[in-house]
Amino acid sequence: MPDVTTLILLSVAVFAGAFVSGLSGFAFSAVAGTILLRMFQPLEAVPLMMACSIGVQATNLWALRRSIRWEGSLLLIVGGLIGVPIAVSLLQSADTHLLRRGFGIIVALYAAYMLLRPTLVTAGEAVGRHWVALIGFGGGLVGGLTAMPGAIPTIWCDMRGMPKSEQRGLVQPFIAAMQLFAIALLVGHQDLSSKVFVDLAVSLPALFAGSALGVIAFHRVNETVFRKTVLVLLLVSGISLI
Can you tell me where the transmembrane regions are (predicted)? Predict the structure, then answer.
């Protein structure tokens, strides 16, 4: 079992990440990772964050089940499942540091610009199914390289001015599917330490408490506050990749 100090820091990191993810739908690893990656080796921290994030996503899906847009989400997921293996192959040959920095700069610039823009556009005409699948492909590709599968779909939803419930209902199942696929690939390529399972077990109370409070906060904030929260998290996530 972890010592008291480790248990407290682990619980704080998981609670903070779960709360932010429950509120915004993403960014668990961006928040929790600031502590967990300093406490544990990457081979322990990354699987732990993936497992915790899947737990948060499961909670989010249950809490938002009436808002889920399954048809659009399935199109995103199909595209994403094509993109992830390509990203895995790129990790073996391409300069991934350059790719991550480039994507981080784009995300950070977009978020900064949109935060400063005074008006919010509204969703236009319906988008073709092939375009939705293409957005999912981009999300899967980028997610495989940066561990941020929700960034591209979230930016796309923001550009179309989608209401918060519609956005979460579309993107949430996609993020959950990409994370399940990613952890399956990870487990297939390496043996997980038993310590990961112990840390996951002791962090469950903080995980579900943070998720529940985050979902409650999501229902209480208005559209403007939600959008600014998402953009700030995109800005922070983009900067973290630079």
Answer: 6-33, 45-64, 70-91, 98-116, 131-157, 169-188, 200-218
**pLDDT tens, position by position, 194-204:** 788 888 899 99
CB of 42 closer than 8 Å to CB of 193: no
Per-residue pLDDT tens digits for 142-184: 887 777 888 899 889 888 888 898 899 999 999 999 888 877 8
DSSP the chain: ---HHHHHHHHHHHHHHHHHHHHHS--HHHHHHHHHHHHS-HHHHHHHHHHHHHHHHHHHHHHTGGG--HHHHHHHHHHHHHHHHHHHHHHHHS-HHHHHHHHHHHHHHHHHHHHH-S------SPPPHHHHHHHHHHHHHHHHHHS-TTHHHHHHHHHTT--HHHHHHHHHHHHHHHHHHHHHHHHHHSPPPHHHHHHHHHHHHHHHHHHHHHHHHHHHS-HHHHHHHHHHHHHHHHHHH-
